[in-house]
Design a protein that fits this description.
Layout: H1 3-19, E1 20-23, E2 27-33, E3 36-37, E4 45-48, E5 54-60, E6 64-74, E7 80-91, H2 94-99, H3 104-120, H4 125-130, H5 132-147, E8 152-163, H6 166-208, H7 211-225, H8 238-254
Antiparallel strand pairs: 1-4, 2-3, 2-5, 6-7, 7-8
Helix pairs in contact: 3-5
């Protein structure tokens, strides 16, 4: 075969080879043929794209993480905080992600920033600090609703960090300290009440058994003697004091 006859064959072979595209398992190819999108994305595996008739846009179906820059948010109780978050999303419809939005990454980033400010601006500071899981679910729901027409699915939204003003940090610290002092006083009062109730029960039992008082005297002496000190204790029964008191009252009445 002469050389002029081989040239068209070589050109056709090179054209066919250049038309072969390989898509990974997580990739899909949205093909435009003469400007019109094909109804079904191509891939994964080997696909043929005949340029310039066809033009293919590669789209990844893997979950992507996007960090939302810190946003200055004014809460419902007029506290200014700086909040940043992270969004996890994936493409479920490659065709919509190509034809419905010019740049789905940029559009999602801008939507996430505005949604973060609007949703957190409707909450109070205490709710923002203590009910973060509830706010994450709400943010995910709002973002998923707006990005659904773009062929995307928001799988998770997490508020990463909440930066408070220095004055607010000191105020929260004082509030926590006051709360702990209140709990300590309540616990101390409950302990005093329980101790008084136990002493009342003990007094009733000793009143029924007067010998128990003498046993307590002896037990107290043993405890004092075990400390190896020089203190001398003389137990004075309470019945003696009561007898002396009665005798003094009788003498006073006679006088």
């Amino acid at each position: 075969m002469d050389l002029p006859a081989l040239i068209p064959i070589v050109v056709i072979a090179l054209y066919v080879l250049s038309s072969i595209k390989i898509l990974a398992e997580y990739e899909r190819g949205v093909v435009f043929r003469l400007g019109r999108v094909l109804p079904t994305p191509k891939g994964p595996g080997v696909v043929l794209v005949f340029a310039p008739i066809d033009r293919m846009v590669r789209m990844s179906l893997r979950v992507e993480a996007m960090e939302v820059p810190g946003q200055d948010v004014v809460t419902r109780d007029n506290v200014t905080v700086k909040v940043n978050a992270v969004i996890y999303f994936r493409i479920v419809d490659p065709t919509k992600a190509v034809i419905e939005v010019a740049n789905y990454l940029y559009a999602t980033s801008q939507l996430a920033q505005t949604t973060l400010r609007s949703v957190l601006g409707e909450t109070e500071l205490d709710e923002l600090l203590s009910q973060r899981e509830k706010l994450n679910i709400r943010l995910q729901s709002v973002l998923d609703q707006h990005t659904g027409p773009w062929g995307m699915k928001v799988t998770m939204v997490e508020v990463k960090q909440v930066d408070l003003p220095e004055q607010m940090i000191r105020a929260i610290a004082r509030q926590a300290e006051a709360e702990r002092e209140r709990r300590a006083k309540i616990i101390h009062a409950e302990g005093e009440a329980e101790a008084a109730a136990n002493l009342e029960k003990a007094a009733e039992m000793m009143a029924r058994q007067p010998v128990a008082i003498q046993l307590r005297y002896l037990q107290t002496l043993v405890e004092i003697g075990s400390e190896k000190n020089t203190t001398v204790v003389f137990p004075l029964p309470m019945d003696i004091l009561s007898s002396v008191t009665k005798l003094l009252d009788k003498v006073t009445k006679e006088v």
